[in-house]
Amino acid sequence: MEKRDMGKPVLFADMLSSHHDTGSNYLNAKKGFLSWLFTVDHKRIGIMYFVAISVFFLVGGFFALLLRAELMQERIVNATANSYMISADHFNEAFTFHGSIMVFLVIIPSIPATLGNFLLPLMIGAKDVAFPKLNLMSFHIYIVGAIFLVYTIAFGGLDTGWTFYTPYSTETSTSVVAAVFGAFILGFSSILTGLNFIVTVHKMRAPGMTWVRMPLFVWAIYATSVIQVLATPVLAVTLVLVAMERLLGIGIFDSNLGGDPVLFQNFFWFYSHPAVYIMILPAFGVMSELITTHSRKSIFGYKAVAISSIGIAVIGFFVWGHHMFTSGQSALATVFFSFLTYAVAVPTAIKVFSWVATLYKGSISFTTPMCYAFVFLFLFLIGGITGIFLGAISTDVHLHNTYFVVAHFHYVMMGGTLIAWIGAIYHWWPKITGKKYSETWGRISSVVVFLGFNLTFFPQFIMGTRGMPRRYYDYLPEYYNFHVLSTIGSWVLAIGLFIVLFNWLHSIFFGKNESSSNPWKAKTIEWTDTAVVPIEHNFEKQPISTHGPYEFDELVKPVKTGGH
Amino acid sequence: MSAHNHEGEHSKFLAHHFKSMSQQTAAGKLGMWIFMAQELLFFSGLFCAYGFMRFMYPDMVTQGQSSMDWRLGGINSVILLVSSLTMSLCVRSARSNNKAGTVKFLVATMICGLLFLVIKGSEWGMHFHEGYFPGKFFNPVAHAEIQDPLAHIFFGLYYVMTGMHGLHIVVGLGLMTWMLVRANRGEFSSENYVSLENTSLFWHLVDIVWIFLYPLLYLAK
Amino acid sequence: MLKIVRNKKRQNSSEHSSGDQKHSHNNEHGLLPVRLYVGIFIVLLMMIFMNIGISMLPIPSIWIVSLLIFVAIIQTILVAVFYMELIHEDKFYSFVFGSAVLFMLLFFGITLGEIRGRDFFTATEGVKMMRGVDQNGNFAPGGPKLEKKSEGSH
C-alpha cells in the first residue's frame, strides 16, 4: 500500500487506521488526497465537512473575540469612529463576518452535514445515502460557496450585518452582490443535502425498521431536511432579488425606488426563522441519543418526541414576523405571529420534559457526552425561555435590537446547537475514529465551556434589559462593567473550546485505540452492527431491525411495592 | 410486485447502494418531486413580489401591462403546451422501448423550447426599443406610451420573472440535450427511464410556472 | 405546428397497439393511452383561449384576476395529474407537491395579508396608510425620488 504524504486527510487516515489490525475500514480503504476529494462514501464526506466547519468556526470565533476585545476598552468621551482599537467601519465588518460565517458556514450545516451524513445510513442500516454523488456535489458546492462568501466579505468590506437589511444593503457600495451570490450557492448545498436525506429515510431503511423504530436522531434529521428543502429556496430568491435590486434597481425593496423594506424583511425571515429550526432540531435529535444512552433508559414518550420534531418544523414556518415586531409591519400580523411563536414553544417544551423524565431513575454516567448534555439542558432552557420574553409584543418593544436578543440567540444557537454538536462528536468519536479520547479533559472542557459561556452571555441579558443596543461600536459608560465581564467570559470560553480541540487532536495523534465496537453499549444499529470503525460499505450483512432503538437491558421498570 | 434480485440478475443500471431497480427508480422519482417542491417555492418569491407590486401600484401595473402583447404571449403559451405534450409522449415512447419515438419527441420538445426563447427574446427586444429597460435603466423614448415614473418597478419585475423562467427553459434544454445523447445511445427502455421522466417533470414544472406567468403579466389588467 | 402533432398522432396510433402489448410487462404502473394525452392537450388549449377571453370581459378587474387564477389552477392540476402522471404514482408524491403548494400559499397569504393590514387598527381613527403619495399627492420624504414633482401614481 503506497503512502502518499499529500495533506491532512491522508495523514489522519493513516494515523487513525494504521494501528488497527482489524483490517480495512472506511478510513484506510482507499488512500490519497483525491480519494477523499472525490469520494462518494457518506462517512468520508461527513468528515470533510467536519474539518471545514471546524476551520470556519475558528475563523468566526476569532472575529467574535476581536469584537469583544474592542468592546472591553475603556470608553472615551467624545469618541470618534477611530477612537478604539478597531475603527467603527471595521467593527461593522467584523460582526457581519462573524454572523455570516457562523450562521451560513458553521451552525446551519454543523450537525446535519457532519453527523447526519456520517450516521444517517448507519442508523437505518443502509449502505449509503440515496444519492451519493449528489452528496459529494453538495460538499463541493459548500466549499465553493464558503470560499466565495469569505473572500467577498473579507476583501469587499461588507458591513450590512448577516441579515442584509434593505435599504442599506441595496445602496451601500460594499460587495453585497458577491456576498449574496456566495450565500445563494451555499443554499444549494443545503437544499441538496436535505433532499438526499429525505429520500434516504423514505426509501432505504433496513427491513423491519418501521418509522417508530427509527432512532430519534433520524426523526430530527428528517424534520430538518424538510425545512431545508422548503425554506432555503425562498432565501435563494430573496438574495436574487436583492442582487437584481442593486444591479437593475427594480424597486421592490428600496423605498427610494418605490419599494418596501419590510417586504425584504418578510422574505428574508421566511427563510431565516425556519433556519434556526434547521440549526436546533438536529441538536434535539442528538440530545435524545445522548441522554438515553448515557442513562441506560428508554426515551420517555418516543412518539411525542418524534411528532414534536415534525410539529416544530411545520409551525416554525409561520412565526417569522416575530423578528419584525418593531419594523413597522402591520399590527394585525404582529398579533398573529406572537400567538404562533408561543405555539411553537409547546413542542419544544415537550422535548425538554421528555429528556428530564428520561433521566429520572436512569443509570446516569457522567461521561463527557453526558456532561455536555447537561450543559445543553441548562443553556438551552435559558435561551428558550428568554425567547418567550421576546415573543411577547410589549416586552419586545423594549428588548428588540438590544443585547438581550444577542444573548438569547447565543444561548440557543451556541449553548444549544454547538454544545450538542461537541457532545455528539465526543459520543460518536470511537465509531468515527476508532480512538479513545481523554475523559478527564473532556469533562474539564465541559465545565470550562459552561462557565465561560455563562460569564460571556449572561451579563448581556442584563445590559440588554437596561438598554444596551446591539451592533454598536460605542456605548454609554454605565454598561462598561458588563462588557468587561462578557469579554473575560469570552476568553474563558475560548480556552474551554481549545481544550476540546486539543483533546480531539491528541486523540487522533496519540490516542489509544478503541477496542470495543460498542463502548457505550447502545442499542442502535450504528453501534451494534458495525466493526469498531465501519467498513467502507457499512455492513457485512444487511442488518435487520428487530427492536426499538432504546431497549436497554437494564430497562428500569416502576417498582410496585413502593419507593427505594 | 417488484422483481426479486437474484445474484446474477443485476441490471447494469443498478447502483451499488440500491437493492433493486424498483428501489432505485422510486428513490429517483421521490428525489425529483422534492426538488420540484423547492423549485416551486423559489418561484413563489417572485410571485409574492408581483402581488406586492400589484397591491401598491395598481394603476401603474395596468399601464405597464398595456405594453405587453397578449398575442405573442398566447403563442408562447401554446408552444409550451405542445412541448409538454411532446415531452410526455417522449417518456411514453421510452417506456414502450420505442427509441425512434423517444428521440423524435425529444427533438420536438427542444424545438418548441427554442421557439419559446426566440419569441420571448423578440418581445424583450420590442420593449427595449421603446426604452422600457429594467429598473434604473428605465428610459422611455419620447413617443412611448408608458411614461409613469414608477413603471420601472413593473418592468424590472417583468424582466426578472420572465428572465428567471427563461433561465429554467435553458436549463431544461440543457438537460434534454444530455437526454438526447443518452437516448441516441439507446440507454432508455421500459426498465431504465427514470432520468428521462425526471427531465420531463422539470419541463412540466416550467410549463406550470408559465401557466401562471402568462395571465398575471399579460392578461390580468 | 399542428401538422407535426397530427403526424405524431398518426405515428402514435400505430405505436399505440405495440404499446399495448408491452403494457403487461411493465412492473410499474401501466402506460396511459396516447388519446388521453392529446385529449388533455386539447382541453388545456381551450383553457388558454378561455383565459384570453376572460381577460377581455367587461367586469371589475378583481373578478378577472380571480377567474384567471382559477383557470390557471385547473390547468396546473391537469398538467400535474396527467402529464406528470400523479394519477397513478405513489400518493406520497402528490403529498409532497401539495404541501409545497400549501406552504407557498401560506407564504403569500401571510405576507400579502401583512402588507394589506398595515392600517388595520388605525383606519377607523382616520389614519390611513397611503400607498405612494400623501393627501396632497406628494411622495413621502423617504419615498421614491423622481425628477418630476408630484406627478406620481394616484
Question: Key features?
Answer:
heterotrimer; A: 564 residues; mainly alpha; Cytochrome C Oxidase, Chain A; 2 domains; 0% strand; globular; disordered N terminus; C: 154 residues; 4 helices; disordered C terminus
Topology (elements, then pairings):
The complex is a heterotrimer of chains A (564), B (221) and C (154).
Chain A lengths: L7 H11 L14 H5 L4 H31 L15 H37 L7 H25 L11 H4 L4 H28 L12 H33 L12 H34 L7 H14 L15 H29 L8 H24 L1 H7 L3 H31 L5 H27 L14 H31 L14 H4 L36
Chain B lengths: L20 H36 L1 H8 L4 H26 L3 H31 L21 H34 L9 H26 L2
Helix pairs in contact in B: 1-2, 1-5, 1-6, 3-4, 3-6, 4-5, 5-6
Chain C lengths: L1 H22 L10 H22 L5 H23 L7 H26 L38
Helix pairs in contact in C: 2-3
Low-confidence stretches of chain B: 1-8
* Low-pLDDT segments of chain A: 1-8
Order of helices and strands of chain A: HHHHHHHHHHHHHHHHH
What would you say the CATH architecture of chain B is?
A: Up-down Bundle
The end-to-end distance of chain A, rounded to whole angstroms, is 60 Å
Mean pLDDT score of chain B, rounded? 88
- The CATH superfamily name of the largest domain in chain A is Cytochrome c oxidase-like, subunit I domain
Tell me the CATH topology of chain B. Answer: Four Helix Bundle (Hemerythrin (Met), subunit A)
C-alpha termini separation of chain B? 53 Å
Counted by DSSP, the helix tally of chain B is 6
Q: Describe the main β-sheet of chain B briefly.
A: none
- Using only CA atoms, what is the Rg of chain A? 24 Å
The second-level CATH architecture of the largest domain in chain A is Up-down Bundle
Helix segment tally of chain A: 17
Radius of gyration of chain B over alpha carbons? 21 Å
- Approximately what portion of the residues of chain B adopt beta-strand conformation? under 5%
Helix content of chain B: over 70%
Helix content of chain A: 55-70%
Assigned CATH class of chain B: Mainly Alpha
Going by helix content, strand content and strand pairing, the class of chain B is mainly alpha
Please, how many domains of chain A? 2
Biased composition (Basic and acidic residues) (chain C): 17-26, 145-154
Biased composition (Basic residues) (chain C): 1-11
Region (Disordered) (chain C): 1-26, 134-154
Transmembrane segments (chain C): 36-56, 62-83, 92-112
